[in-house]
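User: These chains co-purify. Model them together.
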Amino acid sequence: MIRSRRIVWAAGLGLLVIGTASCKKKEPPPPAETSAAPAPAPAPPAFAVQGVELGKSIDADKKVSTPTTTFGRKDTIYASVTTEGAAPSKTLSAKWTFQDGQAVKEQSESIAPTGPAATEFHISKKGLWPVGKYKVEVSVDGSPAGSKDFEIK
Amino acid sequence: MPDDKQPKADFSDVEGGSSSTAPPAPSSGRTYTVVKGDSLSKIAKQFYGNASQWKKIYEANKDTIKNPDLIYPGQTFKIPDA
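Assistant: Joint model of the two components:
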């Protein structure tokens, strides 16, 4: 009788050990490797004038619709200055001169570009434009940044 | 003897304007009205403490200043930030 009790106890103890082992808490899986931190956004390009185009009209994005360097005596003349880069403050200036060096008009526009932009300057004359050769010189904060020759016929 | 000097072209009636797709640069909104005896250097000294900064005022007001040595009482200039 005692022997059979021992057997029962031993069997119970064995089941208990097996049960404990099977209930052992599983180790949590290792965290998935996180991907490398995203590369920082590239710095915007430095502000610079990309080009100057002349024409008789501009579209909604301030760019010349049909570039030309020849105008009529009654035309309004547009100069579109395309730029790239960002800057907290830049002053674009346009100086229009006649063939003899005489100043026709000077204009400026202060901008705070955040990327590619277009800035237009235009001139018109109540009377007829004198026939001849003209030039528009564009500067940024007083430094020359481009020019374009044109003619009025 | 013929006079070979051409009369100067008249551009006094030329009008103009400008605009941009870029936002306008922030401005202090300060203006200054010229009084007798003023010069751009004097105005620059007043606002920036440095007379040599007159070009900054000139650049910001090229529409109205034909000659930086000639400014007139009553003219109102934009004063850019230092």
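Chain B has a mean pLDDT of 85.
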